[in-house]
């Protein structure tokens, strides 16, 4: 959601902060701001909309900026108070000497605000964040020590926060603090950084310290001190980031989303690497830290996730139940956390999350842990908060995903579920050995099949052009590709803003069929050789009888079906149970090209954020 970078050091402060914010831009935001310590003053620039507006604003005031030596920057995704220049961060205290940027939500901000108003603090924004500026300034007024002022202030905050603070009277010192929102410290030479996520730093340093909840970072250009909330110094490990700055480059693709779609074959090879290397050998999944006896007896799994990860979870249910015969419940994290669940110490709870920072899923995971469940996390960010809560951790190894719309992380999640289900099947001896070997063989072929889809996208582009003016879409499928239809529809909604809904094909006649006419395209997923093909085809005939425009995504080579459908998108033959890994790719591309034709902001769709750190 929001993004923070703080910098103090020898480099060009404006460049470092703007570059850091640019690298956080993909997370989604509506306004941006920067505070610079320059010529013994604090100078603030804030703008609405894209970062380019902030860059232009700074450029327009270039003659008023001399040689900044430290600064803090922020991109905001509005929660309290609409997107506006006034509500953009940094926020200041009444006298303007203290500045703060903040990610998260302060739940008791109204009470704090009333108390501070009584102390003559003057509020100008509608944000919860502004109370932090006044609160820290009030403390600083008493003790003249910024570190202690921050520490005393955060003790009064309820809710979630990652903050970065500067004060005019304390030159070139930035103070960070966090609770339930990510914050890291970047370690440089003659320069140091504070940020909400690693992409902000990767161009400057790979050495990072991950702050834990209730820790405070006191940072100058030559020194980093971390304390707990009582002021005791804490020794922290310096970790080295696993990826290069090139991960944040589009490498010639027009959008990150297109690049990430094309990365999928290699991502799959990466996920399989070391876990499935010889089809006659068992799956090697040492990441699952439950002993074989427990896994053998395991009879209940709950998977919790949001959005695209929830769709991967739904496919995961089909895969685990099919391979291992274990009953699996799938639930949106936001629902799981507000009801009485049946989770207990014998349940394996799987949290799925690209970012590892989704607030609803983190809360759900914490609840599951409290009930004694073993928690397995599948995430693309082994450095995330969620990963830190895991009893077992399967990292996706998909590389950083910049486009807000998830693509390669989805396929990596699917592959992780195949590996997990096969691992469970091997322990439980629930599948015929020959069949299992065959599945492993076909799993290894999937990257080549996707390469087949990616090598010629002209039919998908033509279909996108033909259908880009429609206002509504229905996606249908049965069985394991129900998840694909939900995910395909979500992709279209997210980046083109076209209303698209995925349905179990058999449900069409129980209501949605009422909407069908020539203005409603129906996209169906038809995989041959399995148990659903004929049934979905019948559902398509029903839709055709209502004049709906029909698009088929199919492995069928039967040319007779060309008479039923307006467009037939053909994909390589693939075993139905493995097919979601292939069928999702043309749907990602279809959504991409429709959004592209409509001129939408593909990588940063409106109102969305890459990691949703508020419940
Ligand atoms: C869809 C998308 C979102 C996320 C959802 C969960 O393209 O990106 O629906 O899937 O916000 O995020 P994670 O997976 O990070 O928990």
Provide a descriptive summary of the structure in words:
By secondary structure, the protein is of the alpha/beta class. Helices cover 35% and strands 22% of the residues. It is built from 18 helices and 24 strands. An eight-stranded antiparallel beta sheet has the order 3-2-4-1-10-9-11-14, covered by helices on one side. A six-stranded antiparallel beta sheet has the order 5-6-7-8-12-13, with helices on one face. A five-stranded parallel beta sheet has the order 16-15-17-18-19, sandwiched between helices. Helix 7 (264-272) runs parallel beside helix 13 (408-428), helix 7 runs antiparallel to helix 14 and helix 15 (458-467) packs across helix 18. It starts with a strand and ends in an 18-residue tail after the last helix. The model has no long low-confidence stretch (mean pLDDT 94). The site of fructose -6-phosphate (F6R) has 14 residues, from helix 9. Residues 306-309, 353-355, 358, 361, 405-406, 494, 611-612 line the site of fructose -6-phosphate.
Q: Mean pLDDT, as a whole number?
A: 94
Unique ligands = fructose -6-phosphate
Stretches where pLDDT is under 50 for at least 5 consecutive residues are none
Give the neighbour order of strands across the main sheet: 3-2-4-1-10-9-11-14
General form: globular
Total of helices: 18
Distance between the termini: 12 Å
Q: What is the chains' assembly state?
A: single chain
Number of strands: 24
Largest sheet: 8 strands, antiparallel
Helix-strand makeup class: alpha/beta
Helical coverage, percent range:
25-40%
Instruction: From the alpha carbons, calculate the radius of gyration and give it in angstroms.
Output: 26 Å
Fraction in beta strands: 15-25%
């Amino acid at each position: 959601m929001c993004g923070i970078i703080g910098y103090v050091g020898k480099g060009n402060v404006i460049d470092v902060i703007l570059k850091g914010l640019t690298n956080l831009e993909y997370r989604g935001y509506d306004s941006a701001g920067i505070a610079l310590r320059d010529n013994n003053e604090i100078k603030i620039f804030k703008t609405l909309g894209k970062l380019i507006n902030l860059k232009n604003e700074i450029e327009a005031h270039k003659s008023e900026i001399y040689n900044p030596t430290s600064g803090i920057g922020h991109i905001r995704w509005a929660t309290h108070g609409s997107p506006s220049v006034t509500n953009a961060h940094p926020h200041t205290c009444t006298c303007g000497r203290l500045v703060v940027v903040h990610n998260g939500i302060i739940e008791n901000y109204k009470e704090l605000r009333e108390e501070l108003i009584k102390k003559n603090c003057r509020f100008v924004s509608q944000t919860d964040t502004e109370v932090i500026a006044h609160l820290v300034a009030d403390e600083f007024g008493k003790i003249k020590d910024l570190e202690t002022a921050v520490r005393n202030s955060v003790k009064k905050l309820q809710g979630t926060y990652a903050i970065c603070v500067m004060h005019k009277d304390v030159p070139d010192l930035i103070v960070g603090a966090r609770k339930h929102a990510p914050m890291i410290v970047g370690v440089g030479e003659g320069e140091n950084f504070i940020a909400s996520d690693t992409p902000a730093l990767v161009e400057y340093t790979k050495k990072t310290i991950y702050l834990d909840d209730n820790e405070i970072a006191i940072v100058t250009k030559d020194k980093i001190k971390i304390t707990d909330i009582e002021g005791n110094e804490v020794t922290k490990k310096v970790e080295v980031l696993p990826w290069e700055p090139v991960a944040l480059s589009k490498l010639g693709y027009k959008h990150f989303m297109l690049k990430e779609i094309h990365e999928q074959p290699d991502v799959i090879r990466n996920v399989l690497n070391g876990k499935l290397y010889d089809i006659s050998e068992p799956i090697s999944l040492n990441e699952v830290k439950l002993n074989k006896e427990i896994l053998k007896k395991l009879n209940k799994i709950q998977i919790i996730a949001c959005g695209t990860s929830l769709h991967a979870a739904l496919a995961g249910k089909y895969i685990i139940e099919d391979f291992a015969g274990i009953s699996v419940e799938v639930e949106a994290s936001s629902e799981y956390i507000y009801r009485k669940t049946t989770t207990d110490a014998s349940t394996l709870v799987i949290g799925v999350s690209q970012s590892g920072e989704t607030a609803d899923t983190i809360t759900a995971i914490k609840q599951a842990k409290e009930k004694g469940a073993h928690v397995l996390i599948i995430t693309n960010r082994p450095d995330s908060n969620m990963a830190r809560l895991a009893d077992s951790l399967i990292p996706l190894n998909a590389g950083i995903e910049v486009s807000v719309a998830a693509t390669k992380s989805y396929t990596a999640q699917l592959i992780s579920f195949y590996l997990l289900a096969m691992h469970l099947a091997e322990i439980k001896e629930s599948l015929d050995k020959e069949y299992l070997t065959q599945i492993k063989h076909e799993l290894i072929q999937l990257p080549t099949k996707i390469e087949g889809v990616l090598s010629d996208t002209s039919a998908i582009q033509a279909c996108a052009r033909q259908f880009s003016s429609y206002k509504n879409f229905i996606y249908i499928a049965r069985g394991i590709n129900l998840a694909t239809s939900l995910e395909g529809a979500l992709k279209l909604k997210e980046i083109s803003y076209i209303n698209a809904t995925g349905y179990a094909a058999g449900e069409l006649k129980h209501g949605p069929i009422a909407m069908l006419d020539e203005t409603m395209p129906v996209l169906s997923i038809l995989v041959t050789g399995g148990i659903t093909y004929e049934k979905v085809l019948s559902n398509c005939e029903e839709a055709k009888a209502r004049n709906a425009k029909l698009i088929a995504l199919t492995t069928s080579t039967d040319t007779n079906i060309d008479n039923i459908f307006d467009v037939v998108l053909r994909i390589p033959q693939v075993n139905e149970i493995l097919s979601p890994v292939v069928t999702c790719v043309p749907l990602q591309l279809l959504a991409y090209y429709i959004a592209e034709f409509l001129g939408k902001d593909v990588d940063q769709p409106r109102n969305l954020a890459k990691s949703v750190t508020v419940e």
